[in-house]
Specification:
With 465 residues, the chain is α+β, with helices and mostly antiparallel strands. The protein has two domains: 164 residues, Chloramphenicol Acetyltransferase, CATH 3.30.559.10; 251 residues, Nonribosomal peptide synthetase, condensation domain (Chloramphenicol Acetyltransferase, 2-Layer Sandwich). The chain has a six-stranded mixed beta sheet with strand order 5-6-7-2-13-12, with helices on both faces. Helix 1 packs across helix 11. The longest helix is centred in the middle third of the chain and has 28 residues. It is globular, with a radius of gyration of 23 Å. The termini are far apart.
Amino acid sequence: MGTELLAPLDLAFWHLESDAHPMHLGALAVFSPAPGVGPADILDLLGTRAAAIPRLRMRVRDVLLPVGGSAWSVHKEFDVHRHVVRVVLNEGDFMAEATRLAGELMEQPLERGVPPWQMYLLSGADDGPFAVLVKLHHALADGMRAVAIGAGIFDQIAAAGAGRGAVRRRVPVPPRSWMPGPRQVAGMALDRLGEVGRALGVGASVVRASRLDLHVSTALTAGSSGTRRLATAELDADVVQNIRRAEGGTANDVLLAVVAGGLRRWMLERDEELPGADPRALVPVSRRRPRTAASNGNRLSAYLLGLPVREPDARTRLRAVRTAMDRNKSAGPLRGAGAVAVLADQLPPLVHRFGAQLAGNAARILFDVLVTSVPLPRSALSLGGCPLSAVYPMAPLARGQALAVALSTYGGRVQVGLVADGKALPDLDRLATAIEEELADLRSLITPPAVVREDSLDRQAAPTA
């Protein structure tokens, strides 16, 4: 892999970062132990497999042209042991310790000048469960691409990659130059004129979606402290699908309604007055196709959704979410605040370099909370023979935001990763519980328990030959 320019959106993420607002996403993968496999074995395996992923050897460096641009290039002094480390957990409840430490590690920005990623092996007893915390800079990957990159550490993906390598010889790819040839200059000028026109149209949609009323929720609008807290929740994926079948729409509509109901419960339990306006969620949408998941550059748009926390009825909340999301999909990705990501793709590098901080401060007037779904492989995965039991995704906090919610489905469960400003939301665990309670209530309203005949119970209890 040679040299390649950062795509415009990647460049925006790179320059949006500050010490108090790191722009990395992540995941906490939890594994069950396997006989004869200890932390030293897992640490060595992580290092070997991470070093074999070409993208993880790339770092960002400035370039002369285009002005203000940056490029990915291979780090010639790459040392995987600088990126893959073990952290020994304190004694006590494993998940509680792992999530507490993961929150602290997510506070720390990734080092610049080297490939922008980190893996931490979080382990306690040698024969107990362990977790792997993965941090990837958002310039390196969006959610779908992060999965495509990170999946290389798993036994099944690594074995498949080795098999393909044995069949097909890798053809070296010549480095890409960022210097345009003479025949490209005219084409680039025409493209730039088209991009300016598209940017004006998208920008107008973003401005129309902005608001001046910021009185949404005391916690969600609290000032940033630079601290991070992580909490996790688990939902039954079958229950989500049953509700979807009963009410229509998509599974994501159900999950968004569950998040809205969880926020409502949490606000009421805090004795917080419900907001005069529904909090706005930015719901990212990948513009990738499955066959291009590993292609370079972030490919994102987003929808803007008012989370109906003021609505007391759970079923009505779900229907409101479904209606709003249908309206978003009909309008397309170039409308509303969600078009910010599309707008970034239309702007020249120099604007990202000097305008990133201004753009970051504008997030507060566009949305209140990020809610994103991250797709995972459906097949069972393992690391060194240790089964993967759960994956909790983690999204970055935009400047002015106190909460980000990420969801992924694995092993018949929807795992929810909540990342929050540690001082603004010290009761984040309670929000995680409220989200689980909301799904249970929605299930009872929409999918009542099936009536089981007594004779069928007798047949189930009868011994088999």
